[in-house]
């Protein structure tokens, strides 16, 4: 059986070339992440084109995800790196000068008080505000570590007011709509309004890209239900989430976020430091393999590589390790999930998943307009692979993110249900393959799946006899 859980690979200096992109796809990458914290629109356009060209040459369905910066605060105005010892005094100012460095969101200084803690570089350096004036904070380092230009800044204290979308983000979203990005990861989401704002910008520019809400703030945890009601997918962004919520709460939070996303039939990506050791080593640690496996058992649709494929020394090996770990783990995966309750529209998806475990078949083929039924089938985690069958060209790449979707088949729009099935079957080489098919009696209308049908060899022959004459 084909691998169910998908791999997201971040493109960067180590891999942003045609040869490496092809190798990443062959190794198992399903989604490519373009990190808009770096680069220009021109460089991202070139990366986008390289990915599309490589996927086309290899005949693979690959999704491209834009990851916008959001109000990520970073160190600014620090020349070179600075080694910090426990007890050192640091000066954080609205404008860098002398020994004082600044940050990309200097207004934050006004919101901080004496006693507040600030975390730098994903929490590796912690400092406390000892005193302040109108422009400068005097900090005392609580740990040792290294600071340098561009490293992230986090404030664990709640109540810090910042918009999820900066002016740069809005420009980047318009650019994403223009070039045809499939997925958009929105950083530092706090509420459904953040998701809606990003979605509205995309829709205004004729994009139906899926919004992946990155969960990395305390406020997002409080507003999870409303965020899930508007997002098209979720990312458990463990880097900033671990800093904001506390490192030791992460395992439980990861499970809870994934559980809620699964119940809503939303794809969920688990991200950050999954194979960090492979930045400089061709081999993973045993703990990393266990982390990946646990993400699978938790219910992740996809797992993500960041620096490992962007700047690491062994990017192809990292994807291969990830793919092999996923495939091995899936041999022990408890397929066919059941939920205490499901929506009326999910009943046919549930039935298809259930039937596939008792009737011999090649796959579950879902004829879909929006991809909603495919995601609903994936929610129940059938052992059989899923085929998405659609006339929506813009849906084709998005399906590369969804759990268990092995392939997407393109068909032409038609009012006849049987003709749609005929178009799909014509693309299947083995006439003896049996398929469980879901579709709607109101073809082409979103949310009207109302049929589960078994197509065996006899049924296939009858369909072919009917429509071959017409052609």
Q: Explain this structure to me?
A:
With 471 residues, the protein is of the alpha/beta class. It folds into three domains: 6-70 and 163-330, Phosphoenolpyruvate-binding domains (TIM Barrel, Alpha-Beta Barrel), CATH 3.20.20.60; 73-154, PK beta-barrel domain-like (M1 Pyruvate Kinase, Domain 3, Beta Barrel), CATH 2.40.33; 344-470, 3-Layer(aba) Sandwich (Pyruvate Kinase, Chain: A, domain 1), CATH 3.40.1380.20. The protein has 16 helices and 22 strands. The strands form four sheets. The chain has an eight-stranded parallel β-barrel with strand order 1-2-3-13-14-15-16-17, surrounded by six helices.
Topology:
Elements: E1 6-10, H1 18-27, E2 31-35, H2 41-58, E3 63-67, E4 73-76, E5 81-84, E6 89-93, E7 102-103, H3 108-111, E8 117-120, E9 125-132, E10 136-141, E11 145-148, E12 152-154, H4 167-179, E13 183-186, H5 192-204, E14 210-215, H6 218-222, H7 224-230, E15 233-237, H8 238-245, H9 250-263, E16 268-271, H10 286-298, E17 302-305, H11 307-310, H12 315-330, H13 347-356, E18 363-367, H14 372-379, E19 386-390, E20 405-410, H15 417-425, E21 435-440, E22 449-455, H16 457-470
Parallel strand pairs: 1-2, 1-17, 2-3, 3-13, 13-14, 14-15, 15-16, 16-17, 18-19, 18-21, 19-20
Antiparallel strand pairs: 4-7, 4-12, 5-11, 6-10, 8-9, 8-12, 9-10, 21-22
Helix pairs in contact: 1-2, 1-12, 4-5, 5-7, 10-12, 13-14, 15-16
């Amino acid at each position: 059986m084909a691998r169910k859980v998908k791999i997201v690979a971040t493109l960067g200096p180590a891999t942003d070339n045609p040869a490496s992109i092809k190798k990443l796809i062959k190794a198992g990458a399903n989604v490519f992440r373009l990190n808009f914290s770096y680069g220009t629109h021109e460089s991202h356009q070139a990366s986008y084109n390289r990915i599309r060209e490589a996927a086309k040459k290899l005949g693979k369905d690959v999704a491209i995800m834009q990851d916008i910066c959001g109000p990520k605060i970073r160190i600014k105005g620090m020349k070179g790196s600075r080694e910090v010892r426990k007890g050192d005094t640091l000066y954080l100012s609205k404008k860098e000068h002398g020994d004082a460095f600044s940050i990309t969101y200097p207004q934050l200084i006004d919101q901080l008080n004496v006693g507040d803690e600030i975390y730098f570089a994903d929490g590796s350096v912690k400092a406390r505000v000892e005193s302040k004036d109108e422009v400068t904070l005097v900090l005392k380092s609580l740990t040792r570590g290294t600071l340098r230009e561009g490293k992230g800044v986090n404030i664990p204290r709640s109540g810090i007011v910042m918009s999820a979308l900066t002016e740069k983000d809005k420009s980047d979203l318009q650019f994403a709509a223009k070039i045809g990005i499939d997925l958009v990861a929105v950083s530092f989401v706090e509420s459904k309004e953040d998701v809606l704002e990003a979605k509205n910008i995309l829709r205004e520019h004729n994009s139906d890209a899926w919004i992946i809400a990155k969960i990395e703030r305390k406020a997002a945890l409080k507003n999870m239900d409303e965020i899930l009601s508007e997002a098209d997918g979720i990312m458990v962004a463990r880097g900033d989430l671990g800093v904001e919520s506390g490192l030791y709460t992460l395992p439980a939070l990861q499970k809870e976020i994934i559980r809620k996303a699964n119940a809503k039939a939303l794809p969920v990506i688990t991200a950050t430091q999954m194979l960090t050791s492979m930045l400089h080593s061709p081999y993973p640690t045993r703990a990393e393999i266990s982390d990946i496996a646990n993400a699978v058992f938790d219910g992740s649709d996809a797992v993500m590589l960041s620096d490992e494929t962007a700047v690491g020394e062994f990017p192809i090996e990292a994807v291969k390790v990830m793919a092999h770990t996923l495939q091995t783990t899936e041999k022990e995966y408890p397929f066919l999930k059941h939920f205490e309750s499901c929506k009326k529209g999910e009943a046919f998806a549930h039935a298809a998943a259930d039937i596939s475990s008792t009737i011999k078949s090649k796959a579950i083929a879902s004829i879909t307009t929006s991809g909603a039924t495919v995601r609903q089938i994936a929610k129940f985690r059938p052992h059989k692979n899923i085929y998405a069958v659609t006339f929506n060209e813009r849906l084709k790449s998005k399906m590369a993110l969804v759990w268990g979707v092995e392939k997407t088949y393109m068909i032409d729009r038609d009012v006849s249900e049987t003709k749609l099935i005929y178009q799909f079957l014509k693309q299947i080489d083995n006439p003896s393959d049996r398929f469980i098919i879901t579709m709607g009696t109101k073809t082409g209308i979103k949310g009207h799946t109302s049929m589960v049908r078994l197509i065996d060899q006899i049924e296939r022959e009858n369909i072919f006899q009917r429509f071959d004459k017409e052609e």
